[in-house]
Amino acid sequence: MMTPVILITDGDLYARKAVETAANNLHASCLAKSSGNPTLRTAEDLLASLPYCEPHPVFLLFDDAGTSGPGPGETCLEIVVKSEKTEVLGALAVASTSHQNDWCRVDFSITRFQEITAYGVDKEGFAELELQRVRGDTLYNLDQLNIPVICGIGDPGKMGRWDAPERGAPVTTAALKEILHRSGYTS
């Protein structure tokens, strides 16, 4: 049986706490052991854990820790996407300010004010000038994978505290909720 998943291209402690909070808000699961900066777990380890995650969908975190091009997070993410064990609903393309930024196309972005925009966003969650493009360090291969919905977002759990877990991680929650809606997912 395939497990419905949403991919998040950030794995630091702040992102993990924001995604765990959003998962709780949305009655979903966050596979906490997928977090790390950079990603330390293997794709095989993560895939083996999916059957034990309830409720669905499952949110997975991937991080390259600033590596340009294919890093450990992207390598793991690609294996998970191509696995017959997963049904990929979408991805959160997290913006970063690393000096070796890669970029990807997004279907839409969520600003720090929880507004949907056709523009990309920066790390702080402000709309950028480029349409449907986000710059970050763990999104090098998102364009090359068959991901139905990609949402740009600032730095989960941060964005000037607009997405703090203590506040319910409202930006991350709104982004994941919109991916679920656009993917047509029903539990």
From TrEMBL:
Domain of life: Bacteria
Name the UniProt record assigns to this protein: Stage V sporulation protein AE
Species assigned in the record: Salsuginibacillus halophilus
Matches recorded under InterPro entries: SpoVAE
Pfam family, one: SpoVAE
